[in-house]
């Protein structure tokens, strides 16, 4: 066979091909080099479907820039990789009007409806087995007439917003919009339905409760949230915002009244109820007065659907959204139409919709006592019931009542919200906050820990091992099991959390990843005289009252009088509950789940007052950025087997089971 010869052109092309191949291999090697199992969220995302690593977030108008750092458990840091930011063109904004540019958007974020645990009750075996209602992300964008400042509020039909979810959403927003939507002006809030899919967390406690990390559901949620923001961004138009307030009666009870009674009598005497009955409604219309959307904040747990449920759904608040959206979007299917109505969470920590109260399900007698126990069967028999025939009926009754009141407040809203928009945000190490109790004495927050009463659950969903609420002493049996498996809690953490008897010293556990977050978001956005505080957990009734009062006073002391302060719950990162110092002493479920210790509320009040002061004095740019949270990789895979759907023997999917008739009579 004759030897093949190459022309000069062929030789050059072969050389060029070899060089390009070598460069491509080198680039791929760099791309797939990782720096350990714990990554700063600007690095490569092990589960992310984004084609490029997210761009490095620079300094914004709210803070000074800081050096990007990577935390890693096993090796030194590596250089942060960045990708080009693709900015979406800004739609032209009409500027000569009084009001705000307003955009609303809604998108499906349901995720898996089978082969996944439901998030909220932490009940083993409560897996999704179908769907009752779809889950939605509802986004609202408000911008000043010249477009200079804007804020985004997103209410999502999920149990709570996880830190991993927020970091991924912010990274993708930055990749698409540059610095337009940032960590300081975007709030992500979960409605707290206990019937949504789990599996979208990165801290070990929540991963275990979810029975693994599900990238499928995580990506569905991220995509739905981003799509709702994209729709709101595209639909922005000049409009006006009105605010209204009013009580909602007959839909809630305090599920820990004995904790509430620990608060000073003089403080309790200022309020007519042990729950917050006031609903705050924002009405959004265009300049012609045509409806755009509604945001409602009201304190109620979406647990009308109990822990025997296996159908994915948005519970009572989702049903309220469904009713109002169907009324405003006539002729549209559910989840479609221009009007968007969000029923967002508030200080719901100790608030239940199961208004018939706790009763022993085996005897029918009341178990409304300090420990929520029954004479026969203990705490596992003490369960609160809703007003309906069953949980489906109760969901509709409570949801309809909220819808009806929101509809009335929306129709009668006449107080216009006016004034500039502002936002402030910090990351804070909540394990090490010094709290000023008075001018001379300080205290500190603690490394995270869960108390014995955490395992008891609540009257809305009891635990399975017959723990009781209100325990202020440990149990040698469970202490021994914990010590053998996880090791002993240190004397430091036990002393810090007193009188909580520690069941799980999560702040001292780091395998395979930290069990609870250290770095937590605190954030406020303001629209004129309205301040929205983004709470990273569940405030109890009195905790919410104290925070609102403190933030309002801080604004007033710097010239911003008569601010309306709303508590927006389950925002940005989940840190369980936040009780008052006095409620903490009773150590019921909510106190045992206050993971940063007895001074947690005081720390948050101090931090949120600092944000309010920065906004009021126009010194937000001087706020420190704070320590950046990690983004973990190689999370626990789902523990629930993914069962493949199969058609019956001899059939295939799509087969006609019953042929259509040629004609039908009405």
From TrEMBL:
MF (Gene Ontology): metal ion binding; N-acylsphingosine amidohydrolase activity
Highest taxon, organism lineage: Eukaryota
A single Gene Ontology CC term: membrane
Cofactor note: Binds 1 zinc ion per subunit.
BP term (GO), one: sphingosine biosynthetic process
Active site residues according to the UniProt entry: 352
Cofactor(s), by name: Zn(2+)
Transmembrane segments: 12-32
Annotated stretches, region: Disordered: 43-92
Pfam families given in the database record: Ceramidase_alk
Low complexity composition bias: residue spans: 55-88
The enzyme's E.C. designation: 3.5.1.23
Top enzyme class: hydrolase
Keywords: Hydrolase, Lipid metabolism, Membrane, Metal-binding, Sphingolipid metabolism, Transmembrane, Transmembrane helix, Zinc
Homology family: Belongs to the neutral ceramidase family.
PANTHER family on file: CERAMIDASE, NEUTRAL CERAMIDASE
Record protein name field: Neutral ceramidase
Species in which this protein is naturally found: Rhinopithecus roxellana (Golden snub-nosed monkey)
